[in-house]
Amino acid sequence: MDWHDDPDNPNAKRTDWPVYTMDEVAQHNTDDDIWTVVDGEVFDLTQWRDRHEGGPSMIEGMAGVDASAEFHGMHGDAEAANILIHRFKIGDLAQG
Ligand code: HEM
Q1: What is the pLDDT of residue 45?
Q2: Is the CB of 3 under 6 A from ligand 1?
Q3: Mean pLDDT for each consecutive 10-residue tract of the chain (96 residues)?
Q4: What CATH number should be reported for the domain holding residue 39?
Q5: Domain membership of residue 51 as a residue range
Q6: What integer pLDDT is reported at residue 14 of this predicted model?
Q7: Distance from residue 17's CA to the centre of ligand 1 (Å)
Q8: Ligand 1 atom at minimal distance to the Cα of residue 73
């Protein structure tokens, strides 16, 4: 399933995403304010931290940085993780 078809994601059909810079993402870098970037999209994983089956420390490690490599390194193309992360999407990363 593509994440755009996830019935449990209220933003699945949204197209007008705000655009954030890496500097803005980097300001949300504490254990209870966790913004991250994966593949050019911005996510707020604060509420996911304590629900992650792989433990909170992995999510805390994503705070304020581009964590694409770490995310894919563990989850690869795993559908569950790739769909789930999009429930926490808040925007797109500014290009360049
Ligand atoms: C740096 C980023 C991440 C790392 C290193 C990581 C690592 C892990 C590890 C080690 C497990 C346990 C696997 C097992 O017990 O077999 C796990 C499970 C899981 N993680 Fe992550 N995780 C990361 C980010 C995320 C994110 C952002 C999501 C979704 C929002 C996610 C969703 C899941 C799910 C659904 C599971 C349980 C099912 C599965 O193993 O696929 N993870 N993760």
Answers
A1: 98
A2: no
A3: 96 97 98 98 98 97 98 92 97 92
A4: 3.10.120.10
A5: 19-93
A6: 97
A7: 25
A8: 5
